[in-house]
Amino acid sequence: MVNAGQNQRGNLRGPAVYRARKLRREMSLPEVLLWQQLKLRPHGLKFRKQHPVEPYIADFYCPEKRLVIEVDGVAHDMGGNPARDERRNAFFAERNLEVLRIAAKDILKDVTAAAQTIADYAEAKSTRDGELQ
């Protein structure tokens, strides 16, 4: 018997998993538009939407490239949000995840170009990572 909060294997799910599910149903317009492009697998890359990385949730994540994509709306520049974003970036970096931030206004202006920028960046990431080894 599986208890509440456990999956079929009996592993407990963290609260971020449940928040991620909710966020997948409530994506912003720029996120929806970008997801329509990323799910087409540009450069053959697979992306996940609203992917939990406890305690945070990445807007999009490319597991093959360990790349987190964050869609930044105008709220990201207000109040304490820039400092919060820096803490998130540091958290992801500690887990060897790279963060690429895309402005929501750029997605609304040209979603195809924004998705291409992400795909090109992810593709080039292999080269950058290889040079570091």
Plain-language structure description:
With 133 residues, this protein is an alpha+beta fold. The protein has a single domain (28-132), classed as 3-Layer(aba) Sandwich (Endonuclease, Chain A), CATH 3.40.960. The protein contains five helices and four strands, in the order H-H-E-E-E-H-E-H-H. It has helices spanning 15-25, 29-38, 81-94, 104-109, 111-132; strands at 48-53, 56-62, 67-72, 98-103. The protein has a four-stranded mixed beta sheet with strand order 1-2-3-4, sandwiched between helices. A hairpin with a 4-residue loop joins strand 2 (56-62) and strand 3. Helix 2 (29-38) crosses helix 5 (111-132). The chain is globular, with a radius of gyration of 16 Å. It starts with 14 loop residues before the first helix and ends with a helix. Residues 1-11 have low confidence and may be disordered.
Mean pLDDT: 82
**CA-CA gap between termini:** 47 Å
Compute the gyration radius: what is it? 16 Å
So what's the overall shape?
A: globular
Q: What fraction of the residues are assigned to beta strands by DSSP?
A: 15-25%
Unreliable residue stretches:
1-11
According to DSSP, the number of beta strands is 4
Give the SSE string. Answer: HHEEEHEHH
Structural class: alpha+beta
Count of domain modules: 1
CATH homologous superfamily classification: VSR Endonuclease
Mind telling me which CATH architecture this is?
3-Layer(aba) Sandwich
The CATH first-level class comes to Alpha Beta
Tally of individual helices: 5
| Strand adjacency order, main sheet | 1-2-3-4
- What is the helix content? 40-55%
Major sheet characteristics = 4 strands, mixed
CATH topology name? Endonuclease, Chain A
